[in-house]
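Job type: complex structure
Entries:
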Amino acid sequence: MQKPKIATASLAGCFGCHMSLLDIDDRILKLIDLVDFDKSPVDDIKEFTGRCLVGLIEGGCCNEENVRVLQEFRKHCDILISVGDCAIDGGLPALRNGIPLKECLTEAYITGPTVYNPSGKIPSDSEIPLLLDRIYPCHEVVKIDYYLPGCPPPADTLWQALTALLSGKPIDLPYELIKYD
Amino acid sequence: MTAYNETIVKDICRRFGNERSRMMDVVKEVQTSFGHVPNEAMDAIARALSCPRVEVQSLVSFYAFLTERPKGNIIIRLCDDVIDRMQGFDRIADAFKEELGIGIGETTTDGKITLEATPCIGMCDQAPAALINDVIVTNLTKDAAREIVAGLREHGDPQRLVKRLGDGNNAHELVRAMVVNNVRRKGDVIFGEGKPSDGLKNALAMSPVEVIRAVKTSRLRGRGGAGFPTGIKWEFTRAAKDETRYVICNADEGEPGTFKDRVILTEKADLLFEGMTIAGYAIGAQAGILYLRAEYVYLRPYLEHALAERRKSGLLGNKILGHAGFNYDIRIQMGAGAYICGEETSLISSAEGFRGDPKTRPPFPAQKGYMGHPSAVNNVETLCCVTRILERGAGWYAQMGSNGTSGTKLLSVSGDCKIPGVYEIPFGITLKEFLAMAGAEDAAAVQVGGPSGQMVGPAEFNRIICYDDLATGGAIMVFGPQRDLLWVVSRFMEFFVEESCGYCTPCRVGNVLLRRKIEEVRAGKCDPAAIAYLEDLGQTVKIASRCGLGQTSANPVLTTLKNFRPLYTARMKENEAGMQMTFDISAAVRDAEIIAGRKSANF
Ligand SMILES: Cc1cc2nc3c(=O)[nH]c(=O)nc-3n(C[C@H](O)[C@H](O)[C@H](O)COP(=O)(O)O)c2cc1C
Ligand code: SF4
Ligand code: SF4
Ligand code: FES
């Protein structure tokens, strides 16, 4: 029987959630016994090769590229999981949500005290994806099936959630794994 | 209005004994003197009342009727609640905006007139209505709006806008309001016959414990909404160990659609003060406080006069009616525009000179209330019932009403009905019978008990008005078949968003999310999962909120989901692809497109 496939993506995140996934240590060997990785930074596959059972999303959407990737994930994955506070709430990047985009970019590229930018312009190259007016948490863009909170969620949380999903058992997350204060 | 002057502030503070607990009154007087509470005044108040400045600012920033920034000498506050909106708020607001040349929340360029919107001011049966400083104007039309602005420009005196006086005491020289009572049905209790002071005399002939027993025998339950047995509340308050106790009458009447206490205060002030006095005797209190909502300040001179008359007649003060050892007086505490202050612990915070934040319970007010002393908080109507019970007997009272609920209830009805106004009905009649009285037979939906109550449809009209079935603090809002109920729900959520004190997250954030989702449902941008979302979130807000506001604020959503579910399902769209219909990528990249000077390559 073919193994189910997993895909992962880091949108407006810091890769910390992916690092946490790698933190499952040697259980990664067990994981690849259970699943194949499709599109993911883990194996550097850039485009989907087929339908996936699970998609793990780190980070919210800060630009049009994030939106495109997230919509691709929704199309290709049966189950989509928001992993970590950035995907769920927007996280740190969402600190800019109260500031108009123009002001943000002006500060970052023109008027900021440490800026060196002789052109005096906000960079605009067709290669650079356009920013969104604010950070959108993933569930505001596509339907999300599950949420794993934490910054990042501990490796054990990710492991428990994945193995439960793959074995079709109810998820069993002890209090210590979902308590964050 | 005078320029800032520290002596004036100091004098005001001194008049209130430099008491920290009287900060509400101090700040209000300062605002009356200067039109706002200037920065320097906050420092001066803090010094005089020996408290940190932040406490002054925190109080000023909390209440809708207090302001740190200068506004016009005249503030027009249009009621923008549901009933007014059904009765032409938009047209009238436009007329005001046009005449004044400003939008809502703005002040005219000459600095004279400010235009604002405010939730229900308790005039729903004569909507659209507005407050102009302390003066109420009702049944507004576009022409009336124009005349009002012209008048204010000409003479600047809101009182002169009152051309004809209302009925009853609305025409009293100390009231002089155009408000009408619209009492449509008189029952035996509030509007019944009785001899002034008989209740109090009978009470004083009994021991306090006997008075409490009579109230218990009458099976009187609180009329403010929660329906707690009054006799038991008094027993607890009396039993709490302390020398000092208080009676507090809740006249905050902020629940949209409720205006029955306003009519009682206008027509039956003595019945109320007598009830407060009996309560004071029963629980062993030395003082009573009437907490009056700011919107009803036009009644204050009349109420103060009624209190003064009672003092003269020996019905208040020392040795009341010659009863040695019973010394008791009543003062009026004004609110400042905050619905949450109707919640009893917030009311106490407010009366103590703080923000109207609810307190953690226990201890309950009966144990530790105003200034830390045992306090019995009761609604206006409840205390009026007490007077009649002592006057005519607990047995007489108990046989009225239904099996479970004794007595009568004042209902205030508004909206799509022919005869809006105040009705005193015996408990136990069906909603249908009541709707027939009010000329609302073709109602499609009725909001019972205001936004925090429940929205019921024709299938529920046979339910009985009493505490065991359809309970209500008095509000009945009628919606005809032409109304968009989800719009009503959305407006109610807006009310709770505005009025949440912000202390706890489920209420502060949850209500915003509920409102947003309702708007998305209305826009046809939701799939059926939205129903589960609304139900889940509604339950969370209900269960996890700290006080009664948050515990009931999801009711507009939850009760319409229960009783009007097809309204929701009809607006749902299937969504196989799982892309959120509420997400608008073109809007989201618009700013960036403008900044970059190119179109999105992806979308
Ligand atoms: C948000 C909120 C607002 C309230 N507003 C009022 C009010 O305006 N008038 C009132 O009598 N009770 C109001 N109540 C109920 C009071 O907390 C309290 O139960 C009542 O005054 C007790 O008096 P009763 O037992 O005579 O009804 C409100 C409660 C909540 C939670
Ligand atoms: S949730 Fe935390 S670890 Fe994960 S992407 Fe965001 S900031 Fe990084
Ligand atoms: S439930 Fe709402 S009003 Fe009550 S304490 Fe919490 S935030 Fe304040
Ligand atoms: S006065 Fe406007 S809704 Fe009550």
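Summary: Chain B touches chain A through 25 residues (CB under 8 Å). The pocket of FE2/S2 (inorganic) cluster (ligand 4) is lined by residues B 79, 81, 83-84, 120-124, 127, 129, 256 (CB under 6 Å).
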